[in-house]
Amino acid sequence: MVALVGKTNVGKSTFFKSATMVDVEISNRIFTTIKPNEGVGYVVSNCPCTEINKKCNPKNSKCIDGKRLIPIKILDIAGLIPGAHEGKGLGNQFLDNLREAPVLIHVLDISGTTDSGGNPSKGHDPIEDIKFFEDEINFWYTDIFKREWNQMAKCTEITKSDFEKQILSRFSGLGIQKSDLHKSIKKSGVDPTSPTKWSEEDIFNFAKNLREISKPILIAANKMDLDGSEENLKKIKEKFPDKIIVPCSADFELALRTASEKGIINYLPGSSNFEILEEIPEKQKEALKKIKDFLKNYGSTGVQECLNTAVFDVMKNMVVYSVEDENHWSDKKGNVLPDAHLVPQNIGAREFAYKIHTDIGEKFMGAIDARTKRKMGGDHELKDCDVIKILN
User: How far is CA 303 from the centre of its chain?
Assistant: First the structure.
């Protein structure tokens, strides 16, 4: 799952609709989105069908001109305002909706045309939005832990129990992994055997580090098509050199996908170009020319790049294909490359079998690499775009 977050009135709903084509209310009113919108978007990967010159028959995904589109869940969260962790605006609702999201896409108004409260403005500094947003998320994480800290800390020391197990059992709803905890403890420089001695600053730093590790944030620098955006983009890249920042225009992406659905253009999400398929009015030609110039400058509208970067680079996933016939790369019915699976990078063959289905994992006897026809054991690490037959 990918969650779209940010302050109100920055184009989150437009980003969401352009990524999912789910019909949502789009407005410049504050709190247009109240309940989170859920939809299905796609990440794009090269399909192995191009290697065998056969048309594939996807069952759980799509293939367009050798590009495999794998579905992902996208959540559009209600807008955030300063003080959200204290319950201001829709703060509590907003933050609760983030609990299980493993990665956040911060949709930022890079043009500076909305103030910190989401009201129309001029010259607002987007650097302030990055700071306040991350502060709110970090304070929220800290508050969650502080509610149970004294009881948990005392229990850890009195029973000599494992601090990490205490965290995992009490805060399982946050989607925290044991490896996240270990990294956060080490980075914070705290003693997990004596949590009652941690200072307020220790608790905050631990929570902040844990949030950064377990819920990383990618910045979608939206509204790049507006005046002033280019200069602001340079400023935030200089200010935050370690952050992943993707320039984008959700408005342009939505226009392209809408035109593609109507058969006016041929456009693959994430592409740097599109083809006009029919005669259109001059005004529409001018609008599409403006978008073409944008694509030439930035390589894409940025929306698809945000999704791909979030899933493949930030979450560190890859795509592996499962087949039943390793010679024809097909299932028993002859469907070529029917199933594409999003899985963690370097996953083992046995663990991959369990990802497909528990029964397949329990009956696992080995796997075959469809390219090399070599048999592999359960611990063999798979690679991106591998085509695998599970033996059971």
Answer: 11
As a whole number of angstroms, the distance between CA 171 and CA 231 comes to: 41
Question: What residues does 80 pair with on adjacent strands?
Answer: 7
| Tokens of residue 291, six digits | 């978008």
Cα separation, 43 vs 109, whole angstroms: 23
Handedness of CA 382, 217, 23, 233 (dihedral sign): negative
Q: How many residues are present in the chain? A: 392
* Domains defined along the chain, listed by start: 2-134+216-311 (3.40.50.300), 143-208 (1.10.8.470), 317-391 (3.10.20.30)
pLDDT bucket at 30, cuts 50 / 70 / 90: very low
CB 74 within 8 A of CB 306: no
DSSP 219: E
Element (H, E) at 388: strand 387-391
In this predicted structure, the answer to whether residue 88 has a pLDDT above a threshold of 60 is no
Q: Which residue has the tokens 């925290």?
A: 176
**What 3-state class would DSSP assign to 139?**
helix
**DSSP per residue, 2-26:** EEEE-BTTSSHHHHHHHHH------
Q: Which residue has the higher pLDDT, 95 or 178?
A: 178
The token pair that represents 175 in the structure block: 């989607």
- Predicted confidence (pLDDT) at residue 94 exceeds the cutoff of 90: no
Dihedral pair phi/psi, residue 325, rounded to 5° = -120, 105
Q: Which of 326, 372, 178 is nearest to 383 (CA)?
A: 372
Supply the DSSP symbol for 278. Answer: S
Calculate ∠ Cα 74-3-168, nearest 5°. 115
Q: Is pLDDT of 162 > 90?
A: no
Over residues 101-119, the pLDDT tens digits come to 889 999 999 999 988 777 8
Give backbone dihedrals phi and psi of 105, rounded to 5 degrees, phi first.
-105, 110
